[in-house]
Amino acid sequence: MKAVLSPRELAQVIGVSESSLKRWADAGLLDVSRTAGGHRRISLPEAVRFIHETRATLVRPDVLGLPDIDGSLDLAEEGRDPGERLYQFLVDGQARSARAMILTLYLGGRTVAEICDEPIRFALGRIGEAGHDRHEAIYLEHRATDVCVQALSQLRLLFQPPAAAPVAVGCAPAGDPYLLPSMMAATILAAEGWNAINLGPDTPEGALRHAVKSQKPGLVWLSATSEAAATARRDALIAVTDEIVSAGMTVVVGGRCRAVVGERTRPQRRLFLAATMGELAALARGLHVA
Ligand code: B12
Questions:
Q1: How far apart are CA 188 and CA 114, in angstroms?
Q2: What spacing in Å lies between the alpha carbon of 176 and ligand 1's midpoint?
Q3: Nearest alpha carbon, ligand 1 atom 1
Q4: 186 CB less than 6 Å from ligand 1?
Q5: How far apart are CA 226 and CA 228, in angstroms?
Q6: What is the rounded CA–CA span in Å between residue 273 and residue 250?
Q7: How confident is the model over 103-140, as pLDDT tens digits?
Q8: Atom 29 of ligand 1 has which residue's CA nearest to it?
Q9: Percent of the chain's residues with pLDDT above 70
Q10: Is 142:127 a contact under the CB 8 Å cutoff?
């Protein structure tokens, strides 16, 4: 990956003149540093932020130097339903195109939460319904999960939380093997300016307790997808989340089995059930600003 871009390079990416780009930088719309010789330089994360927020047209995305975005992805095909398109790339094993598509959706102005809740969720849901023989299904599901993990990791590298960023910690419960939901939550929180610590799948409650004790996070997420794990760990998960809430922290429980561990007889302040990553993003934004 390129570390920095010149104004000329970023201008090429979005098809504007170099002088416009310099003007925008000088007006403070873009954060630039200077070389020893006084030339403006734009960091890659800053260039990506600018393109995403301004929804600039991508004319030469390959100039960004992002892995996988080499101009071979047919941008004219962009009108096609992104979920269908991603599904096709994932079942055909076209990992590079799938990753490039996810990055391009972000550059084009979609939020990370939208990309997770729509095309990725749709594509994996379809893979899960495809009715293959058991081992073929596991093969396709594992391969598709891995490609999405790669794409989310690439995206996450583009968000560098400031040193004073609030901390968030989260995981999936012991016995829950699902990688993507917790990783999505971490990527979304990073995009919202949080320092997200993802403990990942199959995390014992004791490990979450340790993380919370040492990190004192402003937000804790829990993703419950596996019915077997949520049911087996229900009491222990209710105990740990209640403890965290009592200590004054906010807990967000999501995933298809969220009700098993997140529902209470009486509503609790600071304990939220969320159906989508969009809800997590909105809540995180609210907490960050408060
Ligand atoms: C990949 C996959 C696997 C892989 C997991 C690989 C891995 N390491 O991650 C493997 C092969 C291990 C697997 C195993 C099994 N699986 Co499976 N699997 C899937 C599949 C195809 C995709 C899962 C995924 O990652 N989806 C993408 C995520 C991100 O989408 P999502 O879970 O819907 O999450 C969204 C929201 O719920 C929300 N969300 C989720 N978590 C959180 C957290 C927070 C904080 C917030 C705010 C929001 C949020 O945001 C997400 C994005 O919108 C799904 C199909 C599907 N529709 O999801 C089946 C599915 C989940 N599996 C299913 C089943 C039945 C199984 C098995 C029992 C199969 C078997 N007979 O062995 C085992 C059980 C494993 C276990 N121990 O529990 C069923 C579950 C049915 C149910 N009762 O809930 C599904 C739905 C398939 C189906 N249509 O029947 N599976």
A1: 10
A2: 9
A3: 141
A4: no
A5: 5
A6: 11
A7: 999 998 999 999 999 999 999 999 999 777 889 999 99
A8: 181
A9: 96
A10: no
Residue from 87, 111, 124, 142 whose mutation best tests the ligand 1 pocket (most atoms within 8 A of CB): 124
Question: Is 0.90 topped by the overall pTM?
Answer: yes
Q: Is the model's pLDDT at 83 over the cut of 70?
A: yes
Angle at 126 between CA 123 and CA 130, to 5 degrees: 140
Ligand 1 atom closest to 175 (CA): 77
Three-class SS of residue 250?
strand
Phi, psi of 229 (to 5 degrees): -70, -45
pLDDT at 72: 66
**225 CA distance to ligand 1 centroid (A)?**
6
Using the mean position of ligand 1's atoms as its centre, give its distance from the Cα of residue 172 in Å.
12
Give 282's contacts (C-beta < 8 A, 6+ positions apart).
none
List 33's β-bridge partners, or say none.
41
